[in-house]
Write a structure and sequence with these properties.
With 488 residues, the chain is of the alpha+beta class. The protein contains 21 helices and 8 strands. Helix 5 packs antiparallel against helix 11 and helix 13 crosses helix 17.
Length: 488
């Protein structure tokens, strides 16, 4: 603590009259960063100082100054600007803009992985910054979460420490258990092998950053540094989708391509990576409000119709079992009658659709307009389903759901047979209670496993599917003409 105080006071004395040192922001193997106040311009700045033991080495000092001057020539919205590079009182330092916020590393340590959309945005902004630097012959060589700042309020990502940490390693061992990452974890295989580098080495490092930001894990973990470097050089990185299932395919594919050991198979530059992460342009036609309202319209009596149909379907099953068990095939017409009643709700359901379409035809919309709106709605539904993880039920869960349906149907049939006195009086209670209890147990199992009793394709297509099939069919075209649909 005493050494730190003397260092702080020594720097304050060396920069007196120009900067007022306020507090330490952080430190690493290649420098200590302080928050300071620019006295003349009355603004906050960050000052990075080369450690005294390195400042005494002429080679380290010259490299620090040379690389800082090179980075000072960069001017980009996603790069922290450097205002001054100099020496004073034995201290070697550079002054850069102070960005209020936190590093990406601090964010990940505090809150865990980022949402996919935020991961894509941060990676795009860093990729733009790297593309700008690479175009001017500068390779960062130390892209990692602690060198990416996230500005408070805007969330803007800014890259810092261009070219400063190369060749010195990070502070402390790369596998320090108290840290979320070390520089070695983000090195490209060619950098670890001390081979010539170009911008694609930074692309690899950014891929590791994206992997960590999206999943909370690093692609390679090893108990020691040599083993880590061997794995990076000899093994293919595991797909990020395995560590973070459900992420957008565009993000997963971009991260996996960044981490390819073969330099030629990575993105050629930061611009190409940013383009791969760009939001897909929405080429769907804009729908008028009336067509949107038509797509969203739901028959208010649909639940009642479904209940009516379900009960009569169970009645049909009961009549069928009764007919077969008693050999009363002369009652076949009664079974058909009940089945017809079970299908009867289709008439008002179709009538509701015809009335809805009639209003649109009266407003001047054509059958082609309705079909176009249905296609847009279907595409949006599919996109929504691809993001709805809860609707992706595993085979075992689907089996439990089907068993629940079967047990519920058997309960209804048992009640019907009991009413019709098909079941012997002494066995009535057992015949009814067995499927009822089984249904309750299976339904509770579905609830515990968070399995929706009604599958997504039924929920979404119970009415919309009927509407799509109706208006895309020849019968729908005939009905449209009968309803006065305009041709243009």
């Amino acid at each position: 603590m005493t050494a730190l105080s003397s260092e702080f006071l020594g720097l304050q004395g060396a920069l007196a009259g120009e900067y007022s040192i306020e507090r330490e922001l952080g430190r690493g193997g290649m420098g200590i960063v302080y928050l300071a106040r620019d006295v003349q311009l009355d603004r906050d700045v960050a000052i990075k100082v080369l450690p005294m033991q390195l400042a005494r080495d002429p080679e380290s000092r010259e490299r620090f100054l040379r690389e800082a001057r090179t980075a000072a020539g960069l001017s980009h919205p996603h790069i922290v600007p450097i205002h001054r590079v100099g020496e004073a009182g034995g201290y070697v330092f550079f002054v850069m803009s102070y960005v209020a916020g936190e590093t990406l590393g601090e964010r990940l340590r505090a809150t865990g992985p980022l949402p996919p959309a935020e991961t894509m945005r941060v990676m795009r902004e860093v990729a733009w910054a790297l593309a700008y630097a690479h175009g001017r012959g500068i390779v960062h060589r130390d892209v990692k979460p602690d060198n990416i700042l996230l500005e408070t309020g805007t969330g803007r990502a800014l890259v810092t420490d261009f070219g400063i940490a190369h060749g010195t390693g990070a502070a402390g061992p790369a596998t320090d258990p108290g840290r979320i990452m070390g520089t070695a974890h983000f090195m490209s295989p060619e950098q670890a092998a001390s081979e010539p580098l170009d911008g694609r080495s930074d692309i690899y490092s950014l891929g590791v950053v994206g992997y960590l930001a999206a999943s909370g894990r690093l692609p390679f973990e090893s108990p020691n540094l040599p083993a880590l470097l061997v794995r990076q050089a000899t093994e293919a990185a595991p797909p990020v989708m395995a560590a973070a299932p459900g992420m957008p395919p565009a993000l997963a594919n971009a991260i996996d391509r960044c981490l390819d050991r073969d330099v030629s198979r990575r993105f050629a530059d930061g611009e190409a990576l940013a383009a791969a992460l760009a939001p897909v342009a929405d080429s769907r036609p804009a729908l008028p409000a009336s067509l949107r309202a038509w797509l969203a319209a739901r028959n208010p009596a649909l639940a009642a119709y479904s209940l009516w149909s379900g009960m009569l379907t169970i009645g049909t099953l009961g009549q069928t079992v009764e007919m077969i068990s008693r050999g009363r095939y002369d009652r076949f017409h009664s079974v058909l009658g009940t089945a017809a009643l079970a299908m009867a709700p289709l008439i008002p359901i179709v009538g509701f659709q015809l009335n809805q379409a009639y209003r649109l035809f009266r407003a001047g919309y054509t059958l082609g307009d309705l079909r176009m709106a249905l296609d847009v709605g279907e595409r949006e539904r599919q996109e929504g389903e691809s993001l709805a993880v809860e609707d992706k039920v595993r085979p075992l869960h689907a089996l439990v759901r089907v068993a629940t349906y079967f047990s519920a149907a058997m309960s209804g049939v048992a009640v019907w047979l009991a009413v019709k006195a098909v079941i012997a009086p002494g066995r009535t209670a057992a015949a009814i209670m067995t499927p009822v209890i089984a249904t309750m147990v299976l339904a509770a199992t579905c609830n515990a496993l968070e399995v929706p009793l009604m599958p997504a394709f039924i929920r979404n297509r119970l009415q919309a599917g009927l509407r799509e099939r109706l208006w895309h069919s020849r019968a729908g075209a005939w009905l449209a003409r009968r309803l006065g649909a305009p041709t243009r």
